Amino acid sequence: MLRIMYRLPFLWIGALFFLLVQPAPCNATMISVELVWNFSQAGWVQIDILKGDYQLKFENTTCKFPAGSDLQVGWGGWTPVLRINHDEFQVASESVIEIKGLKPGSLRVKTPEGSVSCYRGDLQLNWQEGRWRLINRVDSEDYLKGVVPIEMSNEWAKGGLEALKAQAVAARTYLVRQTEGGKRMITDSPDIHQAYAGMSVEGAASKAIEATRGEIVVDSQTKAPIDALYSSHNGGYAEDAKNVWGNPDIHNVAHPDPYSQGIGGAVNHWRFIVSASQLGSAFGVGPVQRVKLDKYPSGRVKSVEIEDEFGQTAIIKGKKFVQAFYPFGQPIRREAFLGSLFEAEFVSSSPERSGQGYSSGMDSSDYAGWLKYFTSYQEDQGPLLSRIISSSLGTAANPQPFGVFIFEGRGWGHGVGMSQWGAYQMAQLGFNYQDILGYYYKRVLVSKG
């Protein structure tokens, strides 16, 4: 019933905003995507033409490069080399190689280390500072076909196609903002811009790109494209942009988000355990005995003050604190530190003292289960709790007497703008993509083509 109450007034507003106002469409264009996610340190690369007709251009040579052709590039003694169709290697006296499509096709890029991706469009290879810099030049709508499925999932098309449509519009809007003023270069890195994996991830989500072709989110007054920010899961409360990047944004403001609660598995509720010694070591102090959290209204942590057993203190910004324990390059799981929306509690290593000062939101049965595990003994090893280093580092051979801290958190990512898991739940509840965008971005319209 709560969700129905949220929906009724919003649908009337959505109808006025999104159906009556139709600004000019956003047309497709060619953009350049630097492939840094998996190929940032590429010394040796092989490109295979899978489909279509291409043209290979290097130095003063231009030749046909049809399906079945391949190119290997590498280096020898810091000099770039290349080999075409398994012929002899030759020195590349110029640092730029271009593979241009004459007919629509696809090409595959792979490295000896095992990175493999397929792409539409053209490919440029630049030799710079001992590595090959790869740039995929591709139609913007085809680019989105390699963004939406990896930012969300092709599987969501079964019951959440409207969420994929919302993601397509948000991603297109983000692209427009990033390429304003004649700029046409972005990266494929989710840490810098948007995740992009080319044809390798194309699937059912392409329907969402086609269904929203050319549509972007714009300011309701100026009709200018907004910063359509988004993250995986906001933990039930969207964050204010100024609390993350320092600049206020009327389109990305803090607000409760019931649609991002109870969905998302590990990212909905995670728990990270770290010993008091390890926690102090991470920030240059002794075993920590006290943690104090300074929070924004959303509940996200602005800063963390820690005090060790010697009275020494340190104040760490929330983002830096998360980065110290974030599972970079590892699979996302419940026993990980995933974001800045969290609580901190202490549990003593001593069985008779375990739970003192512990006031987590866990229910009694869950809490009892954890205590049973923490305070259980193994032969000749003492209580497991005293041997924990952290959720990511496991246990130590020798016990420590300083206890552990348990961080209970919700959400994954910065939490600003659209929550992808929240959008998915809204789609499952019957909201359309205009509803979703209007819920997460304030004072906006969708530009219709």
UniProtKB/TrEMBL annotation:
Q: Which residues belong to any copy of the Sporulation stage II protein D amidase enhancer LytB N-terminal domain?
A: 129-217
For biological process, the GO terms are: sporulation resulting in formation of a cellular spore
Q: Superkingdom of the source?
A: Bacteria
Organism source for this protein? Answer: Desulfosporosinus orientis (strain ATCC 19365 / DSM 765 / NCIMB 8382 / VKM B-1628 / Singapore I)
What name goes with this protein?
SpoIID/LytB domain protein
Q: Quote the cellular component terms of the Gene Ontology held in the record.
A: outer membrane-bounded periplasmic space
